[in-house]
Design goal:
Pfam families: TPR_10, TPR_12. By secondary structure, the protein is mainly α. The protein is built from 38 helices and nine strands. The strands form two sheets. Strands 1-3-4-5-2-6 form a six-stranded parallel sheet, with helices on both faces. It has a three-stranded antiparallel sheet with strand order 7-9-8.
C-alpha cells in the first residue's frame, strides 16, 4: 500500500468518498486552531508511518482538533478510523469493528488475535489504501504503541494529556506532536458568537465572559449553550460566576484550580435546571449519576432496560422509560453537557470530575450507590462465558470508577466477584488482584463473599509464583473457616484445597496428595455429583501425575470425565479441562497417538466454545507440541509451540511460571526442528529466571535443564549439556527416588552427553541402569523404553559388541510402533543415539 501526500498521489480510490469509522460528527461551532491543523497535516504527510501526538490539559479541545482534522483532510485518505483509547476495552472494540470493515475474520472471543490481524493488514495490505487511525484519549502510550498501533503503512494521530511523546520503547517510532493551548481571545469570541451571538452585548461582554472562563473550550461551549436558552442575563451570569469562582478558588488546592471555571459555571446551570421541569431536573440526576461511572461512552440501553424500584421520582424515569430518557439526552446534547450519538452518550472526564467535586459528601454517597446498583442490574451473568467478555471488560472499568467493592448491597458485591472471576478466567491477573485486594479489605462483614475474594487472590498469588505467601495465607484462611463452620464445611474444604495447591507448587507433593485425597473423600461422601467434588477429583489426578502415578491418575481422570460430562455437558470448559488432563496422562503413559487425537479434539471443542486462548487451552497447545515432536511431526510441533508462546507472552510477563513453561517447550521444539542456534540462545536466557521463580527443591528447574541440555546438545555442546543433565538428574532423584519415571529423561540424556564426550564406558553403564529402570516401570512399546534400548545398543556397539541382531529387532519394533517414515526409524541406518524428549510432568 502507498499512503500518499494528497488526494492525487496517495489514495487508492480518489473518486470514492473515504470510509469514516466512528469519527465524531463535525462540530459546526469549531473555531480557530488553523495553525495546529496545518502543522498536524504537514507532519503526518511527511512520511508513511508518521505518528502525531496532540497533547494538552483536560478540556482544551484535543479531541475536537483531531475530529476537525479528520473531516477537513478526509480527501487525503481512503479510510479514517476513530479509536477511543482510554482503556484497552475501547481500543479492542474499535479494532473488532475495523476488522469487519476491512474484510477480516472477526472473533469477539479471540480479541487479541483479531487485533493482531488488523495490525498486520494495515501494515501490509495495499487494498486498504491510504489510512488514518485516530487514537483518542490515550493514557498509556507505550502500551498502546506496543499492543495496538500498526508498524507502518499509514498515519496515526493520538490525543493524550500533557505528553509530547511516549517512552522510547519502539525504536525509530518517536512521535511528532505539540501541546494544544487554550483558545486565544479571538478564538474564544468566535466560538461564543457561534453559540450565543445575541448574549454578547454590550461590546466587551464576550471578552469578559471568555476571560472569566479562562478560554477553556469545554467551559465556553457549555456556558454558550446555556446562555443561548437561559432567561438569565449575561451580566447577571458574570456577577454570579465571579462570586462562585472566587469562593471555589479560595477553597481549592493549587492542583484543582484548573477546574474552577467549569465548576462555577456548572453550579449556576444546576440551580436553574433543578428549578425547572421534570426533564431538566432529570438532566441533573443523570449527570450526577454518570459522574461515578467510567469516562466511557454509555449505552442508552444500560439505563432504559434497568428499572430501579428504590429510585426517587426525579430518577425513576431514567430507568425503564425510553421516551423520557430520550428527552433527557436530547436536552443534554443541546446544552453541550454530553456528546450524544445514536445509542450512546458520553460525558467529558473533566466534567465528571467537576460534578463529583460539586456534591456534598451525603450526595456523593447517594449517587455512587445509585451507580453501583445500576451496574449490578446490568451484570452480564456468567463470567466464564466468552460471549460476555466485552460486557465484563466494561464492568471492570465501571467497578473501579464507582469503587463498587465498598458497597454493602449483596447484588453489587456479587457483581464484583463476577468481575474478579472473569478477569481471573481471562488471565488478566494484575487487574483481578487489584479488585480482589479492595474487596478483601472492605468485606469484613460478609464472610462468604470475603472467602471467595480471598481464595481468588490466593490463586493469583500462586500464578505469580508467590507460593510461600500463598501457603501461609491459605492456612490462615482455612484455620478461620474451620473455626467458623467446622472442618468439613464447604468453606473450610475450599480453603484446604488452596493449602494443598500451594503445597504442590512448593513440590511438597506427598503432603498435597494427602490433603487432596482427604478433600475428595469428604466431597464424594457428601455430594458425589457436585461440581466441587469433580474439581477435587481433578486436583487429585494432577497430584498423582506429579508423583508419577500415571495409571492411577488415568483412572481418576476417566471417572471424572464421565461425571463432568454427565453434569455439565461434553463441551463445557470444566469438562474440557479434565479431558486435557486425561490427554496429558496418556502422554506420560506413552500412548502418544491416543493423546494426540484426544488433545486435538479438546482444542477443537475449546475453539467451538470460544475458549481457545484461555490458560487451559494454551497449556493444551504446548502438550500437543510435545506430542507432535514425539510423533516426528516437527512442523506441527513448531506451529503449536510458537502460537502458544506468543499468546502466553501477550498475557504474562516473560518470567512468570506459565511463560517459562511455554519457553521450555518451545526451546526443545526449536532444537528438534533444526533451529538449534535459536534453541541454544534461549537455553542460556531461560535458566536464571527459572531458578529465581521456583524454590530450590521444585522439579521444574530440573526439567528446564533437561530441555536446555537438548538445545545445547543440538549444537554439539556436550560438556555444557552434561553439566545441566547431571544437575537435573541429581535434583530429580532427590525428589522422586532413583529409577522413578521422572528421572528417566535426565538419565538417558546424560548418557548421551557422555557418549558425545567419547566417555563410552560411562555412557554404557548409565544406559544399562536406565534401561533396567525403564523395563521395571514402562510397557514394552513405551517410547521412552524404546529410546533407552536404542541408546544402550549404540553405546555397546561403540565398545565393540555385536548388536546387529538386536538392532534389527528394535528396527522392526519401531516400524511397527511409529511407521517407516518416523525420524527415529529413518535414522536407524546408522548407530546414532536419540534424545529423550517428554514435556515437564509438573503443573505450573
Amino acid at each position: 500500500m502507498t499512503s500518499g501526500t494528497g488526494p492525487a498521489g496517495g489514495r487508492r480510490r480518489p473518486d470514492h468518498p473515504p470510509v469514516m469509522g466512528g469519527v465524531p460528527p463535525a462540530d459546526p461551532d469549531f473555531t480557530g486552531r488553523e495553525a495546529i491543523l496545518e502543522q498536524i497535516h504537514e507532519a503526518l504527510q511527511r512520511s508513511e508511518g508518521a505518528r502525531y501526538l496532540i497533547g494538552g490539559g483536560s478540556g482544551v479541545g484535543k479531541s475536537l482538533v483531531a475530529s476537525q482534522y479528520a473531516h477537513r483532510y478526509a480527501d487525503h485518505y481512503d479510510l479514517i478510523w476513530w479509536v477511543p483509547a482510554a482503556t484497552d476495552t475501547d481500543v479492542n472494540g474499535s479494532y473488532l469493528r475495523l476488522a469487519e470493515q476491512i474484510g477480516l475474520t472477526v472473533s469477539h472471543d479471540h480479541i487479541a488475535r483479531t487485533v493482531q490481524g488488523v495490525r498486520r493488514a494495515l501494515a501490509r495490505d495495499p487494498a486498504i489504501g491510504s489510512w488514518l487511525l485516530v487514537f483518542d484519549g490515550a493514557t498509556d502510550l507505550e502500551t498502546l504503541s506496543a499492543d495496538h498501533m500498526p508498524r507502518g503503512g499509514g498515519r496515526i494521530l493520538i490525543t493524550g494529556q500533557d505528553r509530547r511523546r511516549p517512552p522510547r520503547g519502539v525504536p525509530g517510532r518517536l512521535f511528532d506532536g505539540r501541546i494544544v493551548p487554550r483558545l486565544d481571545t479571538a478564538e474564544s469570541l468566535s466560538l461564543l458568537r457561534r453559540l450565543c451571538p445575541e448574549r454578547l452585548e454590550p461590546i466587551g461582554t464576550g471578552e469578559r465572559l471568555a476571560e472569566h472562563l479562562e478560554h477553556l473550550p469545554l467551559a465556553l461551549t457549555q456556558v454558550g449553550a446555556f446562555l443561548r436558552e437561559s432567561p438569565l442575563g449575561t451580566e447577571e451570569f458574570l456577577d454570579r460566576f465571579q462570586e462562585r469562582f472566587t469562593d471555589k478558588v479560595t477553597r481549592m488546592g493549587t492542583d484543582d484550580e484548573h477546574t474552577a471555571p467549569l465548576a462555577a459555571a456548572w453550579e449556576i446551570q444546576a440551580e436553574e435546571l433543578l428549578a425547572g421541569d421534570a426533564t431538566s431536573r432529570a438532566v441533573v440526576e443523570l449527570v450526577r449519576l454518570c459522574a461515578f461511572l467510567a469516562p466511557l461512552p454509555l449505552s442508552r440501553s444500560f439505563f432504559s432496560r434497568s428499572r430501579d424500584p428504590q429510585a426517587p421520582p426525579d430518577q425513576a424515569g431514567l430507568f425503564g422509560d425510553g421516551a423520557h430518557l430520550d428527552r433527557v439526552l436530547e436536552f443534554m446534547g443541546r446544552r453541550r453537557l454530553a456528546s450524544v450519538r445514536p445509542g450512546t452518550f458520553h460525558l467529558h472526564e473533566l466534567f465528571q470530575e467537576v460534578i463529583r467535586d460539586s456534591m456534598p459528601l451525603v450526595e456523593k454517597v447517594r449517587y455512587r450507590d445509585l451507580a453501583r446498583r445500576l451496574l449490578a442490574r446490568n451484570d452480564p451473568g456468567d463470567p466464564t462465558d466468552p460471549a460476555n467478555r466485552h460486557g465484563y471488560l466494561l464492568m471492570h472499568a465501571h467497578v473501579k470508577a464507582s469503587q463498587a467493592w465498598s458497597a454493602r448491597d449483596p447484588r453489587v458485591r456479587a457483581l464484583v466477584l463476577d468481575v474478579i472471576d472473569f478477569l481471573t478466567e481471562s488471565g488478566e491477573y494484575p487487574k483481578a488482584i487489584g479488585v480482589a485486594d479492595q474487596a478483601v479489605n472492605a468485606w469484613g462483614d460478609d464472610p462468604v463473599r470475603l472467602l471467595h475474594a480471598r481464595l481468588q487472590r490466593n490463586m493469583i498469588r500462586r500464578v505469580h509464583s508467590e507460593y510461600a505467601t500463598a501457603l501461609a495465607e491459605a492456612r490462615e484462611i482455612h484455620s478461620g473457616e474451620a473455626a467458623r463452620g467446622g472442618p468439613d464445611s464447604d468453606e473450610a474444604l475450599e480453603a484446604l484445597r488452596a493449602v494443598a495447591i500451594a503445597l504442590s507448587g512448593l513440590a511438597r507433593f506427598d503432603e498435597a496428595e494427602r490433603l487432596f485425597r482427604q478433600i475428595l473423600d469428604h466431597r464424594r461422601a457428601r455430594s458425589p455429583g457436585d461440581e466441587h467434588t469433580l474439581e477435587a477429583a481433578q486436583n487429585y489426578a494432577q497430584v498423582l501425575l506429579e508423583q508419577g502415578r500415571f495409571s492411577q491418575a488415568l483412572e481418576v481422570s476417566e471417572r471424572n470425565l464421565r461425571e463432568r460430562a454427565a453434569l455439565l455437558g461434553r463441551d463445557s470448559v470444566s469438562t474440557l479441562r479434565t479431558d486435557l488432563h486425561l490427554g496429558l496422562t496418556l502422554v506420560f503413559l506413552g500412548r502418544w497417538e491416543e493423546a494426540r487425537d484426544r488433545l486435538e479434539d479438546c482444542m477443537a471443542r475449546f475453539a467451538a466454545q470460544a475458549a481457545s486462548e484461555t490458560p487451559h487451552a494454551l497449556q493444551g497447545l504446548l502438550v500437543l507440541a510435545a506430542v507432535y515432536r514425539g510423533l516426528g511431526d516437527t512442523g506441527a510441533a513448531l506451529e503449536h509451540s510458537t502460537r502458544a508462546l506468543a499468546l502466553y507472552r501477550r498475557r504474562y510477563p516473560p518470567t512468570v511460571r506459565q511463560t517459562l513453561y511455554g519457553r521450555v517447550v518451545h526451546m526443545v521444539t526449536l532444537a528438534r526442528a533444526g533451529r538449534g542456534d535459536e534453541a541454544a540462545s534461549e537455553a542460556r536466557l531461560l535458566l536464571p529466571p527459572t531458578d529465581e521463580r521456583f524454590p530450590a527443591d521444585h522439579p521444574f528447574p530440573a526439567w528446564a535443564r533437561v530441555g536446555a541440555g537438548i538445545a545445547l546438545r543440538s549444537q554439539g555442546a556436550f560438556a555444557a549439556a552434561a553439566e545441566l543433565d547431571r544437575a537435573a538428574l541429581e535434583r530429580l532423584r532427590s525428589l522422586y527416588g532413583a529409577g522413578s519415571f521422572n528421572t528417566l529423561a535426565a538419565a538417558l540424556n546424560l548418557a548421551t552427553d557422555l557418549y558425545g564426550l567419547e566417555r563410552h564406558e560411562e555412557a554404557r553403564a548409565l544406559d544399562a541402569l536406565t534401561e533396567a529402570d525403564c523395563r521395571a516401570i514402562l510397557g514394552e512399546e513405551h517410547p521412552i523404553l524404546l529410546t533407552a534400548r536404542r541408546n544402550h545398543l549404540v553405546s555397546r556397539q561403540a565398545l565393540g559388541e555385536d548388536v546387529k541382531e538386536e538392532w534389527t529387532e528394535l528396527f522392526r519394533v519401531l516400524v511397527s510402533r511409529f511407521g517407516p517414515a518416523h525420524p527415529s526409524v529413518a535414522s536407524m541406518t546408522s548407530y546414532t543415539r536419540q534424545d529423550c524428549d517428554v514435556p515437564p510432568v509438573v503443573a505450573v
